[in-house]
Design brief:
about 70 residues; mainly alpha; 3 helices; elongated
Length: about 70
């Protein structure tokens, strides 16, 4: 099924959500597409961009652990 030009998913006028509501496609298909699209975006990043993303995530996890430790 081709939907043609569409607004970003979740925005007013989104043909994908209209198709889900009409029963033309399932919510699981949309979720699968979004997951694959995110994975594709990650694989297109350069090595340096992936390392930065990993470092930023590591820093975030460390800050959460520190916050949890300081609460007790």
């Amino acid at each position: 099924m081709r939907l043609g030009a569409t607004a970003p998913i979740g925005e007013p006028g989104c043909a994908v959500l209209g198709a889900v509501n009409a029963g033309s496609i399932s919510r699981e298909q949309v979720e699968s597409y979004l997951k694959l699209s995110g994975e594709s975006d990650f694989h297109q990043l350069s090595h340096a961009e992936k390392r930065k993303k990993d470092r930023d995530f590591g820093r975030y996890i460390k800050s959460v652990k520190t916050d949890l430790k300081n609460r007790h």
